[in-house]
Amino acid sequence: SKHVIKNITWTTAKNFTVERGQQQIEELISTWDIHESWLHHSEFLEEEELKDSKRYHYRACWGLPTRRKPLPRATASVYFVIVISKFKPDTAPVEVFYRLESSRLIRRPEQCQFREKWLQDIIENKIVCAERL
Asked: Is the pTM higher than 0.85?
């Protein structure tokens, strides 16, 4: 069965604020099919000025706390970039990209459905590495 990629309607460049960006990232995350035991917090990291665009960087940090271990042994981060083009009209929607902390692959929310397994893999790899040390 073909998965429907869930996305949200992104704000326009002229209506963008750092806070609005973070709210919209939370809105996007709420469309992801992730078990409720996963908890995350998101934060704004920095604004980057480029020749052709302004980029706003955010991070969502994920963990699987349990009653026995309220502090997870490892966390997994997803990095988001919201891009505002200096060439497009300010009525155009912002562009959004994300990547996983362990990967250089950049994904677009409208082209790729997020998978919980990606978070599990990062955390499992970190735990394996920590146990080797």
From this structure: yes
